[in-house]
Design goal:
This protein has 339 residues and is an alpha/beta fold. The protein contains 13 helices and eight strands. It starts with 5 loop residues before the first helix and ends with a helix.
Length: 339
Amino acid sequence: MKKPGSSKQEAADRRPLTLIILLMVAMLVCVGGVAAQDVMSAHHHVDSESDAMQGNTQQRQDWARARLAKSPRHQEWVEVKYGNRTVKSFVVYPEVKKKATAVVVIHEIFGMSDWVQALTDELAEAGYIAIAPDLLSGMAPNGGGTDELAASNGVGQAIGKLPPDQITADLNAVADYVSKLPAANGKVAVAGFCWGGSQSFRFATNRPTLKAAFVFYGTAPTTAPPNPALDKAALAKISAPVYGFYGENDMRVDATVPTTTDAMKELNKKYDPVTYAGAGHGFMRAGEAPPPPSPAAKGDADADKVATEKYGKELTAYKANQKARDDAWITWKAVLAKL
């Protein structure tokens, strides 16, 4: 039997829960609005809604940071300035006797991650000056970049809102900067991953002096919505050879390759796509990450069986990504060596 006044007390106790539920609903509405906006911004090559949402939490990889810390190569952050913009960029120098070719690294939809920096170091290890610009520089409310946007869960949104002309101007400024370094031989190539892969393809249409463009699981430029199509006029401007690296289990991107191949052939442009068996989207990062942990037995036969089967699938996918990554590196370095 309730005490007098207990109903009022229970109602008061429920108010915080009600407010929390209302707040969650509002957040879902906001996320839905962002997803719709990303669809309208398809010509910016935001690769997918799920990637954009993950972009808020995928900047940090302890294993990549540990690799960077052990590197003997000279690493530095520089500010590349042009007009009213400053693009914060990560540069790593190779330990070589001769002036080196430079590679501009375009980050994933996740922004300037630890992995992107580690990969930049790996390019330097292979003998190239590598520079990775944070294309989100100045896009945070306080003028910061990826780090500040990640802290407020704003990376995915900010990527989708980047003006295409600004991206091109940023990349041109960075390419100009790195080509003029005393240790550089003046040759510049570009490489990009995921969203950055698409931007790498697009940059090849805007910078005729590029020596090569390396497109990792990215798509060719398309015309603006509402009826986007392969932008042949843009592709016609490409001077550099384009090398594509794709995972077999990535049909969202793979479905665009045949049309792109036909268009590039028609335009007499070099396009060399390779698809790696069993690999998925993002295999360059996924294949370098630590393997999935094996499940601990819980004593429940059914649950243990499900966990073991899940682990088996994850391990198979990991090994395929790892092999694709290793094979892609061999091909990539072989091409770079001939530039």
